[in-house]
Amino acid sequence: MLNTANLLTLSRIVAIPLVVIAMWLDRPWSPWVSVFLFAAAAITDWFDGYFARRYHQISRLGRFLDPIADKLLVAAVLVMLVHRGPLQGVHVFAALIILAREILVSGLREFLAELRVGLPVSQLAKWKTTVQMAAIAFLLVGDAAAPIITTVGLWLIWIAAGLTLITGYDYLRTGLRHMAEDASTSSAE
Length: 189
Prior knowledge:
lipid metabolism, mainly alpha, globular, transferase, Four Helix Bundle (Hemerythrin (Met), subunit A)
């Protein structure tokens, strides 16, 4: 059964091709439409969590779809920003760091789920997401608003990449600890 939280998560997934199309069209209004759609999708991430907790709408479907929707949205837009936007040259590495961490954390969550171990989102990871979403929004609208907006977006994407490295390392360390416990339990048997 779909509840409000799940519908918001699904709306984020539906917004992905719309954001990409708006970026692809390369019209004078494209940056504004893409940043509006992206911002609306990013805001649903906060609201779906709020509704799920506030109205006890936490579901298996929501726990499955929410992180996927986030990663798909960020990955699609970062790829488009590399393809058509300001993430060129050395700035591509910031996008690669962010994407690599997302894959790493997804793999860790899947592995740890088999061990029935949760990997809760840290406060620093929430800050990373906030900075990352702001950076992407700045980069989407970029020069259409003012040339300084692109520069601010590039600074923010590198800050997000730095936070990504820190939080990725924290998650990896937690995962490796559980892997070591699993290995020592297996060898003791």
